[in-house]
Structure formats: structure tokens, C-alpha cells
Design a protein that fits this description.
The complex is a heterodimer of chains A (about 290) and B (about 240). Chain A is mainly α and about 290 residues long. Chain A contains 13 helices and no strands. Chain A has helices spanning about 15-45, 50-60, 60-95, 100-110, 115-125, 130-140, 145-175, 175-185, 190-215, 220-225, 235-245, 250-275, 280-285. In chain A, helix 9 runs antiparallel to helix 12 (about 250-275). The longest helix of chain A is centred in the N-terminal third of the chain and has 34 residues, at about 60-95. Chain A is globular and about 60 Å long. Chain B is an alpha/beta fold and about 240 residues long. Chain B is about 40% helix and about 25% strand. Chain B has nine helices and ten strands. In chain B, helix 6 (about 170-185) links the parallel strand 7 (about 155-160) and strand 8 (about 190-195). In chain B, helix 3 (about 90-100) crosses helix 4 (about 110-125) and helix 3 runs parallel beside helix 5 (about 140-150). Classes of the chains: A mainly alpha (about 290), B alpha/beta (about 240). The interface between A and B is medium-sized, with 21 and 30 residues.
Chain lengths: ~290, ~240
């Protein structure tokens, strides 16, 4: 056996260079085709007729009001969903009760239901010809075809994000630290602020950022509840579609570029915070 | 403080974790609740600490009914199985937590808190680790920090759930002596849960052997060794 060719040993979990190369290349190809190419096109189309054209299209009252509306909706929906998500995750992970699995499924429901159906449900529940909707219209605060309806629809669609991020983290951390705080004399409220919240802050932040990004980009549900009133209830995605249908491609793509840019800001913020607090992050994972 | 457990039972759904058990623990004793998993020893400890409430029966501290006292009112220094140190706080802040959680009227000043934490760090013989985080400590150090944190609230009793469970054999023996010393200095009634009969016999003044939610035998280690009351006890302590 002395003349046998020397064997080269590979770790059991390694692939041959060929397989590895093919896998990496196919991932890059798919990423390029599905993600980068469309994004580049958006910016290219926006700037096709120069910077000046793009910037002035944003100054149109229609575009400007849609940006303000979208930011307002996200600014209301994301914090409210943060509160509800924490409450839901807390309830699910810290208590044992019947029907827990059902409740978790219920929280996921907005992911599986089409946003258009969500929008329709909001209209059918809170429209002007329903009891509660009529009451609100009489009081001067209509829900449907107005800001409250858009916020409501966005909140329903983005509800699962925070709870989904928190539940696994809170299950993994268990109840021991909270119990320890209680035995040391802390009230339930103090325990929440000084022990629970610091332990989940990263998952919470991540959930809120996802929620925020999705709320800004929501189209289907908002299309139904907003009534698409120009300059009033048209959010950025709705306005982008309307401009595009009117062959105003520079205006439409510029607004799309702004929306994409807002998503980048969200991602950038998350990455920045992760780098800045890398130590605390690692410490809370290692323990 | 003298602790009396009077016909305590605990049901979880349809399963009985504790059949009515009664027990009297003299003031200043070091007591082991010894038994296999599922024997109800941890449930009994958690009932003493106010983390679990009994289905029936009473708990008396120094002759006074304490059954209805909340976990905060019990003032029991509790050491958890995996220590449950606050991972996002330094060792100093962990130990100071109970003092800072007091209502404003009885909360010590910052300087007083620092003085007490330093004193406790000396007591557990780890004077220089105040600025570290729990993840930077060894298992044995974490256990001692958990002990110091429990002692910081000037507890009426000390309750420990498998305090040596997560440690290797050598550290375990060292810390046994450490717990004995702290018990002797503070004079606190101390109850610890263990499944290790050698540990219980070596460390405790009084051993309570439990099985299937019942107390099999209560006695001094040498008496239990010499005269096991039931077949279960004989088998368990010879294992």
C-alpha cells in the first residue's frame, strides 16, 4: 500500500471547491437579478433626466404630501406595534394558559392573509355605514378614507413583526431573572423596566425596524382603506403607482428611490447600532 | 427565623406536586431538602420564597402566618439554580439591585449602597470583580455573586435551589465550605435543595428526604444514615 497516492483529507462538513463555487455563484446571480438590478434600475430611471428634474418632482405638493403621510403613518404604527408586540410576547412567554398555540397562530395571521383582504376588513368594520364608523364620522373623525384607517391597516399588516422577534428570545431567556428581581423586592413594573426590557432591547429594536420598513412600504391594505385621495390619503407607494400609471416616470421613480432610501436608512441604523453595541450584544448572547 | 410548614399541598393541574406536608425548621438551621427530580423539593422551596402559592396549608414565619405574603414581602434571599444573574448589569449593580429597588424612604444613599456592596464582595472573597459582567465570570464566581446579591437585601432566610448543581466536583467542595461559613457568620435559617445525598449529609444540620411529593424522613444526617425510616431512604442514601 506504500505506493498509493496520498489522500487529501477534508473536514466532513466541507464541500469540494467546485460545489462551493457553483453554490456561491448561483446565490450571487439570484441576488443580482432579483435584488440589485431592480434597485439600480429605480435609481437609474429616477436620474435619467438629471438631478434637477428628479428633485423638482419631489417638490410637487402631491409627492411631498405623500412623503409626510407615509412618515406619519410609520411614526404612529411602529411605536404602537412595539407596545402591543411586547405585551403579546410577555403574555405568551411568561404565563401558561390554555389556547397558547392558538394565540401564537392568531398573531401570525396577518402574514398569511392578503393585505387587500385586511384593507377590506377594515373598511367593512369601520366604514361610514357601520355602527362605530358612523359614530366616528358624526364626531368629525372618519376612520376609513382618512389617516386613522391607514394607520389601522398598516398596524394590522405589521403586527406580527415585533412579537415574532421577541417570543423566541423571551422563551430562551426564561423567567428566572424576573423572579430573581421579584425576590429582591422589585415591583412587577420595576422588574419590567430594569430586567425584562434591557434583555430584549435588541430583538425589540430589530422588530420595530422591520415593522417600520414594512409600514412605509405597505400597498395593498392601504390602497383599499385610503380611497387614494391625491394629496390627502395617498401614501408613497400609492402615489408611486398613480404617477407611474400617468407615465410620469421620473417623478414616479424618484419617489420610489426615496422610499428605497428610507429602507436603507433603516438598515443602516440597525447595522450602526449593532457595531456600536457589539460588546453588550455579545455579552447578552454568551451568558 | 423559625419556619413552620403546616399541611402544605400543591396541585399543578391534575398532578399533585406536593401531598400535604408538614415541617418545622428551627431558627438558624442549615437544612437540606434532598430527593430525586420530581420529588417536590423545589416546589416546596419556591412556596417558602413566595414564588409559588400552595393549594392548601399555611406557612408560618416565627409563628406568624406568612402564607399570603407576596414574594417581595417575604424578604427571602433566593439563589436560583443557574443563578439568574442580570446579564446586562455589572456584578456591582447585580448586588446593589435589591437595595436600589427599595422604596425611596428606606433606600440607602449611593455611598451606603457602595459600602455594603464592597462589604459583600469581601464576604464572598471576590473583592475585585465589581466592574465585570456575569458572562466574564466562572461558574463558581457566579454562584458566589448570586449569594451576595441575595444577602444584600438583609434577608430573613436564605433559600438556595441546587446551588452547586452546575459546578464541577472540585469547585463544588470549595463552595460547600463557603456556604457553611456564610451561614455560620450570618446565622440565617438556610434551606437548600439538592439531589446529591453526599452533599446534603455533609453540609446540612437537618436533612429532609423527599420522594413523590411526600416527606420520607426528617433528621440529622447521622441519624438518617444509621436508621433510614423507609426502604426508599435506605436505597437513596446508599446510591
Amino acid at each position: 500500500m506504500s505506493d498509493a497516492a496520498p489522500l487529501t483529507w477534508r473536514p466532513a462538513t466541507d464541500e469540494t471547491p467546485l460545489v462551493r463555487g457553483v453554490l456561491i455563484a448561483s446565490v450571487l446571480l439570484v441576488l443580482a437579478l432579483l435584488l440589485f438590478a431592480p434597485l439600480v434600475t429605480v435609481f437609474y430611471e429616477a436620474l435619467r433626466k438629471g438631478w434637477w428634474e428628479a428633485v423638482t418632482s419631489l417638490a410637487e405638493p402631491e409627492a411631498w404630501s405623500s412623503i409626510r403621510l407615509t412618515l406619519t403613518v410609520a411614526a404612529i404604527a411602529a411605536p404602537l406595534n412595539a407596545v402591543f408586540g411586547v405585551a403579546a410576547a410577555w403574555f405568551i412567554t411568561k404565563y401558561d394558559f390554555r389556547g397558547k398555540a392558538f394565540l401564537i397562530t392568531l398573531i401570525d395571521l396577518p402574514f398569511s392573509v392578503s393585505p387587500v383582504v385586511v384593507g377590506l376588513c377594515v373598511v367593512l368594520t369601520f366604514g361610514a355605514n357601520t355602527w362605530i364608523g358612523g359614530l366616528m364620522v358624526d364626531a368629525g373623525y372618519p376612520i376609513v378614507f382618512a389617516l386613522p384607517g391607514i394607520v389601522l391597516a398598516s398596524m394590522i399588516v405589521t403586527f406580527p413583526f415585533v412579537a415574532r422577534e421577541l417570543i423566541p428570545v423571551m422563551v430562551e431567556q426564561g423567567r428566572a431573572e424576573e423572579e430573581a428581581a421579584l425576590t429582591l423586592g422589585a415591583s412587577g413594573w420595576r422588574t419590567f423596566w430594569t430586567v425584562t426590557l434591557p434583555n430584549i432591547r435588541w430583538a425589540l429594536l430589530y422588530g420595530v425596524l422591520l415593522c417600520n420598513a414594512r409600514a412605509m412600504g405597505e400597498f395593498g391594505a392601504v390602497a383599499v382603506v385610503s380611497g387614494k385621495i391625491r394629496g390627502q390619503t395617498a401614501t408613497m407607494p400609492i402615489t408611486i403607482e398613480m404617477l407611474y400609471n400617468e407615465y410620469l416616470s421620473v417623478a414616479s421613480f424618484t419617489l420610489a428611490a426615496v422610499l428605497a432610501f428610507l429602507a436603507f436608512v433603516t438598515l443602516g441604523l440597525k447595522t450602526f447600532l449593532e457595531i456600536r453595541h457589539a460588546d453588550a450584544l455579545a455579552a447578552s448572547r454568551r451568558h | 427565623m423559625h419556619i413552620k410548614i403546616d399541611e402544605i399541598s400543591k396541585q399543578f393541574g391534575t398532578t399533585a406536586a406536593l401531598h400535604p406536608v408538614s415541617l418545622s425548621l428551627p431558627s438558624g438551621a442549615l437544612v437540606a431538602l434532598l430527593g430525586p427530580s420530581g420529588s417536590g423539593k423545589t416546589t416546596l422551596l419556591r412556596i417558602l420564597g413566595g414564588l409559588e402559592f400552595p393549594t392548601s396549608g399555611r406557612v408560618l414565619f416565627d409563628g406568624q402566618d406568612a402564607t399570603g405574603l407576596t414574594v417581595q414581602q417575604r424578604r427571602a434571599g433566593f439563589v436560583f439554580q443557574s443563578y439568574a444573574l442580570f446579564r446586562h448589569m455589572t456584578v456591582f449593580d447585580n448586588i446593589a439591585y435589591g437595595l436600589n429597588a427599595r422604596p425611596r424612604a428606606t433606600r440607602p444613599t449611593k455611598a451606603e449602597v457602595a459600602r455594603r456592596v464592597t462589604k459583600l464582595l469581601d464576604l464572598i472573597q471576590l473583592p475585585d470583580i465589581g466592574a465585570r459582567y456575569p458572562s466574564q465570570l466562572s461558574g463558581g464566581q457566579r454562584q458566589r455573586v448570586a449569594l451576595a446579591r441575595a444577602l444584600a437585601i438583609e434577608p430573613r432566610m436564605l433559600l438556595l435551589d441546587e446551588p452547586f448543581g452546575a459546578l464541577d466536583a472540585k469547585v463544588r467542595r470549595e463552595l460547600r465550605q463557603g456556604l457553611r461559613d456564610i451561614h455560620d457568620t450570618t446565622g440565617l435559617t438556610t434551606v437548600f435543595v439538592t439531589h446529591d445525598q453526599e452533599e446534603a449529609m455533609e453540609l446540612a444540620d437537618l436533612v429532609v428526604v423527599m420522594s413523590m411529593g411526600r416527606i420520607e424522613q426528617i433528621g440529622k444526617p447521622q441519624d438518617i444514615r444509621a436508621r433510614p425510616a423507609t426502604a426508599f431512604v435506605r436505597e437513596f442514601i446508599s446510591a
